[in-house]
Amino acid sequence: GSFELWVDLVDTMQVSTVPLYDMKKVEPLEVEIRIVLWTLKHVPMEYNDTIDIMAKVHIECSTFLGDAPVQETDVHYGSTDGHAVFNWRVVFSRIKLPTSSCLIGVSLYHYSALGSPVNVWQLKLDMRKWLERFAKNKDPVLIDKQIVRKPPPDESENPAEEGEEAEADAVEMLLSVHVISQIEASQRKVGRGRDPPNENPTLSVPEDGRQWGDYFAGTALNLSGMLPSLGLWKKFIPLFLIVLFSLGMLVLLRWLGLL
Questions:
Q1: Under the phi-then-psi rule, with left for phi > 0, alpha for psi from -120 to 50, and beta for the rest, what region is 257?
Q2: Residues 107, 232: one domain?
Q3: Residue 9 falls inside a structural domain
Q4: 193 phi and psi, to 5 degrees?
Q5: Domain range for residue 57?
Q6: Is position 19 within any domain?
Q7: CA distance 190 to 207
């Protein structure tokens, strides 16, 4: 542990004339971390020809006082090479400084509309040095479009078995990180994901991985180039499939005389 103290050394003849030091409590400094996940490369395919990629970003911070400690991106459908585009903003508000630890975890998943997502990769970023820089200078910290790579395991420690393929390329994330005071953040608000206010920077919905053909890629219903863009309707596709399945079952049960 540790503690801080203040000591005044005053001549005994001047004690009555020297005023006491004003020990007002200093209000803690609060900051906001904004992260933009732009693109991913070399996401593990897990023996599939295609992968639907979704990311979850969470904060592990001893002085985090905000809401939404876990935030999810949308889904990049039908990636055939482990590449994904997101243009997605994550916002963690009300982080009190100083803090003893602050980690940002990024987990990548193979998304499934009919089952639980399968984790295929994860990484933790230590944000403490950036928070300490902000606390020291009181100036915003901006890391713009920096590539973050998770090194593959040391092959000397985990050699591949005979006939086994070598470790795939390390996953690459293209990130932007912005650390600002909570006061400034309240004056220059931004939305999570691509919600308004969508600025600093403005994030557009990617075309890659959001088409009908991407959604059905890797299935017997690969309709690439035959259907219009998914747009926001992609969120309702699982519901449409469930409704169609339910109607089909009702027709079948009625035909069998069970209804």
A1: left
A2: no
A3: no
A4: 65, -120
A5: 30-217
A6: no
A7: 22
Q: What are phi and psi of 85, to 5 degrees?
A: -120, 135
Question: Cα–Cα distance between 10 and 4 in angstroms, integer?
Answer: 20
Stated pTM of the model: 0.71
**Beta-sheet pairing, 51-61 with 172-181:** unpaired
Please check whether residue 210 is in contact with residue 229, taking contact to mean a CB–CB distance below 8 angstroms: yes
Work out how many domains the chain is built from and give that number: 2
Is 162 within 8 Å of 210 (Cβ atoms)? no
Residue 4 in domain: no
Say if residues 31 and 98 touch (Cβ distance below 8 Å): no
Max CA distance (Å), the chain: 107
Residues 125 and 248 in one domain: no
d(Cα 96, Cα 118) in Å, to the nearest integer? Answer: 33
Q: Which amino acid is at 211?
A: Q
pLDDT per residue as tens digits for the range 193-244: 999 999 999 999 999 998 877 777 655 454 444 445 555 555 566 777 888 8
Q: Is residue 16 part of a domain?
A: no
Half-sphere exposure of 44 (CA within 13 A, CB side): 16
CATH number, residue 63: 2.60.40.150
> Is 73:107 a contact under the CB 8 Å cutoff?
no
Taking the C-alpha atoms of residue 237 and residue 231, their distance in angstroms, rounded to an integer, is 11
Segment 79-101, tens digit of pLDDT = 999 999 999 999 999 999 989 89
Both 157 and 252 in one domain: the answer is no
